[in-house]
């Protein structure tokens, strides 16, 4: 708000201005000094001529008019409000004064009365979005099924605010730790805790542990983790259901605050669900529970008709063989068969017979080809790989022979530039991730820890065969040598000519499995299992893939899908019409939508809102162009579920620790909802207060029409007055 304006007339040389005035006055005075006119007329004519000459001469001094506006600028503040379902909790039953949503609305009303601040509003749950003060209460419905405080803070930090106020119960169930986002904050965050921090008398199904996949006909363990408060000695009943059918019921006596109970489930393949077996574990309600919305959880198991078969060929004894064997043993849906070199002509496991392994899905080569295996055995393996066009995963060891590699060129994702390695690097090569590595579908299960695990991975070896990418090769990892980043390729994949290959060029990769860091151990396991799963995906499935972002969506949330489309040359296709039809298997209702393209080439996205609860099967189709007669580029099917997950009610007490830490790490201050009266003075004390600022503008008068107008006006007045006074 501008409170006053100053004007200043400036010249390039102020002393000359006085001289110009004296000269102008002298010329004018000399002109009229001796004329026979009255003194009054003489002075009028002298002044008029003086002004005219002075204005003309002043133009040589570059006159300018400067305007200075002084105003107060209010600090920009954003008020972030938790819009998730946990904010509907009533901390004391039958007492509306303990409704978190009501407390929040009242708090916002009081914050709206803060003076001296420019107030902006944002609400958050699964996402964060800005709202105006006029529409705040309309959008604030406390319906979000997830809480991602970190995402809301990161959004605020990208914008130009002076301070932030966060109103929340502090409970989050999505995203990163909000404390970490607060620590990187360039502005103070003031937090106001909503809700009671006392543990409620409740029984909560905290999590359900089930394998992601299984083979039809097998038995799998299902574990339920149950926490309770105030029900010591109570007996509860737990149900295990699949597709609405109760498979097991067990009774549990609560003897501690956290307990587990296990089930064994017979797995079957259901064609109508694409092999997805829905699971639901629920605790039957008990009198006196604070909430029954946290008594149920749902998940699903991806069921295979048969186990997948992996044939592993390895050179002479190497630690990598045992590491791969252990990684494969942890995959219950795979059968692995090993052939380990004993002598140049023999394997420890006996004679390899290709005919018995025609059902193999993937082959792994460890330390092969090498120079110690006979040509007969090498050619035997080579013939087997060629006959089936089987996908191949090659893992180098220090035995790997560059000369022999040339025979296996079609099974490698890279080409070697020389047959004798230039340098054998041991214990000094470190992994370096690439954008392709971050987006590789095989690493998707460990995406949150991928960068951390790669950074923590121990040093490895490297055989420098001058590896180069082939046409279509995707480089997932490169190498640091000591601390120097290089373009040397550590891990690459290739999908061409109907064959998929993956090549890991780093001997001593087994070191990751022996690391004390759990994330690094998981990186090793996922590199093996994720690469195998990518290799097994069919080419058509790889070219057009549609996936829901989750197997289970919470009732009331948006079901989101991603699609990727490639042409026959595996190049991204961005211009296509992709439709999806989801069918509720219980009600037979169908819901349709059309994908829209994203910024990434060949990538599409779809959101379906308002889907009723139930099990769904979806069918998706990609067509060239938008015509109904367009060429079909691909089809995909899948399944998902919409259920009441109760995710927002698994922790019913407010989290004072998180809210306090957000404030402390960012340089702000923590408040309880009932004790924030000092907020305004605290903001001002922190330097978040109105500041007086100046805004200056300058106008060049040299070319101003006003100067010309005033000059003409002065000389015109003089001429007219002379004529009226009968002067020549």
Q: How large a portion of the residues is in β-strands, by DSSP E?
A: 35-45%
Structural class: alpha/beta
The number of distinct β-strands equals 37
Shape, please? extended
Arithmetic mean of pLDDT: 89
By DSSP (H or I, 4+ residues per run), the number of helices equals 16
Helix content: 10-25%
Kindly report how far apart the N and C termini lie: 57 Å
Radius of gyration: 38 Å
Largest sheet: 9 strands, mixed
Low-confidence runs: none
Q: Could you please describe the fold and organization of this structure?
A:
α1 (14-32) packs antiparallel against α2, α2 (39-58) runs antiparallel to α16 (705-724) and α11 (450-456) packs across α12. The protein is of the alpha/beta class and 728 residues long. The two termini are 57 Å apart. It has 16 helices and 37 strands. The protein is extended, with a radius of gyration of 38 Å. It has a 9-stranded mixed β-sheet with strand order 17-16-18-19-26-25-24-21-22. A 6-stranded mixed β-sheet has the order 5-4-3-6-7-36. Strands 9-15-14-11-12 form a 5-stranded mixed β-sheet, with no helix packed on it.
